[in-house]
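Design review, sub-item: ligand-bound model
Attendees: FS, YL, KQ
YL presented the inputs for the NAP complex:
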Amino acid sequence: MHGKLRKNAGAKMSDAEIGLIGLGVMGANLALNIAEKGFKIAVFNRTTQVTKDFYANAGKLAANVVPCETMEALVGAIRAPRPIIIMTKAGEAVDQTIAALRPLLKGNDIIIDAGNANFRDTMRRFGELDGTGLTFIGMGVSGGEEGARHGPSIMAGGTQASFDRIAKVLHAISAKYKGESCAGYMGPNGAGHFVKTIHNGIEYADMQMISEIYGLMRDGLGMKAAEIAKVFGDWNKGRLNSYLIEISHKVLSVTDKKAKKPIVDIILDKAGQKGTGKWSVIEAQNFGVNASAIEAAVDARIMSSLKAEREKAEKAYKIPKKKLKVTSRAAFLKQLEGALYAGKIAAYAQGFAVMETASKEFNWNLPLGTIAAIWREGCIIRSQFLGEITKAFSKKGGNLLMAPAFAKMMQKDHTSLRAVVAQSALSGAPAPALANALSYFDGYRQSRGTANLIQAQRDFFGAHGFERIGEEGAHHGPWAMNAKHD
Ligand code: NAP
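KQ shared the predicted structure:
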């Protein structure tokens, strides 16, 4: 049946166990992953040629694929009650797809949005399907193309019952960490997409901090790409072992054939973004949680996009670039390793604090230990470090900085972070995520801060009142300009 697509419902047997709409990068790979695990899958794509090409290139797996030319045919090809994954572009495309599907579905069918939805859209979609008999699952899938094909990390949100109905497929296709599935139930309605959003926010911080460390080696120590690659390669054998360090090592090792230079040296220093980092920061602010290292990473991408302005500003300021003042390169590299580790602890502490607060706010009961566990494999931030976080949250919630294992590490490594941030400031090399991670740590472990002055200022100009140490109630100061409050 190569090349032939099902056009309408009912003509053939409904024997597919699951359906998938949207055969782009993620959808096509996820569909092959599902077919490979032995589940018969019906697929549909808005542009029919894409479905034809997908089917023609599916090789042996085509035996488990039912290619469909219409949504009616897709629905007709799946055994009821039907689970249908939507893996299209996020946003309007998902609303349009749900609208087209709804009249074709019956009670108990499950619509699964597996794209990078804003969790507030997911919550709205839950509301819209409420009472229709249809069930909705908002599911974050991480790991990019490779993950989708061979095992992603999967964060599902919805009812426990609907998750249970598709759990077999999800556990089969997910990444495995020492045999444990990296697919998990996060909680009701928007919980899965929320967790995926924060995953991406942490990913921004992780990537930015690695880039800052790279910048200090490149500009501060004058190291060549190959030398930096070696450092990352060595670190990847230790406690910083992670996918992002591994790929940083790999990309820094590649030579561009055309320019005959390291490929990183011919790539423009301008990074794009699609929105999940920004959403993490917006939600952190909405919940009143400090996520400054994540925010600094999002801001750094914004700054990176101002290439032309930065070029002008560098000329205008004519501040000579300074090399880092280090007595021993080997010792400083060790400090860089410690700084990156400490920075990571602070950034993850922030991401998990945002999730903990959102969980209370929405009554989600997010399983923080399970979240760390399902991020150990399959996703972009997978790392050895997440194994430590899993252990920390299995014992107790609360800020990661207070988990005994992390407190012990931070006790030692904050000095490296401090030295590196100080060096970066003195040399003029920006390291915003590391600097914010340090400020977060310093602010968090300071029992007497400086907000007493903020309280006084607010009372002075706005009669907002202040709390006195050891006394209940609001008080006002004897400000001359505000005498009515004497
Ligand atoms: P992609 O390769 O650009 O594919 C987009 C898919 O969406 C295509 O199948 C396209 O169909 C379909 N589509 C677009 N607008 C549509 C509409 N109005 N109605 C119906 N279908 C529509 O995208 P992708 O990278 O696979 O991403 C899919 C989702 O996964 C997104 O939410 C993305 O954020 C998320 N995600 C991506 C990655 C990644 O690494 N790429 C990782 C995790 C999550 P046509 O062929 O007809 O255009």
